[in-house]
Amino acid sequence: MESKDLIRSPDTRRTKRLPPGQELVEGFPVLHYGGVPGIIPEKWHLRIFGLVEKERTLGFSEFLVLPRSKILSDVHCVTGWSRLDNIWEGVQTSVLKSLVKLLPDAGFAIVHASAGFTTNLTLDDFFQEDVLFAVKHNGQPLAPEHGFPVRLVVPRLYFWKSAKWVTGVEFTAEDRPGFWETHGYHNRGDPWREERYS
């Protein structure tokens, strides 16, 4: 599926691009808990469940034919590094609204990933225009250490919210802090407010 025109994340339009306490890096540091899972794309699935009218599961080939977009964004890691001008390609989270009908009580998205990892987002944060399930970074398929085959990208929040190796999205009525949020990280993670730790 061809991608639409480039969408710029609002942070890329700021005069000052680095949030407080951040330093610019040229490379792309690799940080995660545990090992890199060896995911076989043909066996990968995205499960959309919880407060939806009907649960849906997509295989990788089904996922790849969904409408795709390109997002220009900056990356801000809670550990203090930032990487500017990243181009991500993938499926905007808003596409999920055409795949399942959310029930009225839904208020949060709990993103599930390999090895039982989760992270939590309000629906307002989850459905922003610049949030997507990425399959490419700067024109190349994601490397395994950066989340291959699919990772979430949430440009306006610290990068731990951009879960690697995504396997599902659960819609819930109540917030449910994820892995890092229950290990001392802030529940939301706005880099411009330095919401690093709880």
Which key phrases capture this entry?
mainly beta; 7% helix; single chain; globular; 198 residues; five-stranded mixed sheet
Outline the structure in words.
The protein is built from three helices and twelve strands; from the N terminus they run E-E-E-E-H-E-E-H-E-E-H-E-E-E-E. The strands form two sheets. Strands 1, 2, 5, 6, 9, 10 and 11 form a seven-stranded mixed beta sheet that branches. A five-stranded mixed beta sheet has the order 4-3-12-7-8. The protein is 7% helix and 34% strand. The longest helix has 5 residues, at 60-64. By secondary structure, the protein is mostly beta strands. It has one domain (3-12, 42-193): Sulfite Oxidase, Chain A, domain 2 (Alpha-Beta Complex), CATH 3.90.420.
